Amino acid sequence: MSDLPPFTHPPSLADLDLMARAALDTLPEVLRAQCTDLVVRVEEFPDEEVQVSMGLESPFDLLGLYHGVSIDRKSLGDVPGGPDMVFLYRSPVLDYWIETGEDLNRLVRHVLIHEIGHHFGFSDEEMADLETQA
After folding, report:
1. Which parts form a coiled-coil structure per UniProt (predicted)?
2. What are phi and psi of 67, to 5 degrees?
3. Does 55 map to a domain?
4. By the 8 A CB rule, do 107 and 93 touch?
5. Per-residue tens of pLDDT for the chain, all 134 residues
């Protein structure tokens, strides 16, 4: 990820997508191999359905979201319901970036790893350990 420039202006959806893909490359191979079918999408905000179902007061309250069935809960007998997906929400991420001054590449990486952790069914502690290792 170090070859990505630090941002001093709001990056586009495509810029955040590139940052997320670079962050995926930092995952340990044993985890990355389990993410080959995971779809990562960058959108401006969570859609209305997500906002309602999660009881958000504001669309800025959610930086990312995992949508799917975590690996630890999947069964061979399950009927596939579409690909597992990780959403990163550009405007909320940028709002948080501006508020905190945190490095944007690190922030995107943190949100992505957290959401991928849900894909694996990890606890928050396990996700923190994963981020430290990656």
Report:
1. none
2. -125, 115
3. yes
4. yes
5. 455 556 567 899 999 999 999 988 888 787 788 788 889 999 999 999 999 999 999 999 999 998 887 766 666 666 666 788 999 999 999 999 999 999 999 999 989 988 888 777 877 787 777 667 66
**Does residue 109 sit within a domain?**
yes
Q: Say how far apart CA 124 and CA 27 lie, in whole Å.
A: 17
The answer to whether residue 1 is domain-embedded is no
| Count of beta carbons in the 10 Å neighbourhood of residue 35 | 17
d(Cα 15, Cα 6) in Å, to the nearest integer?
11
Given a contact cutoff of 8 angstroms between Cβ atoms, the answer to whether 43 and 89 are in contact is yes
| Number of compact structural domains in the chain | 1
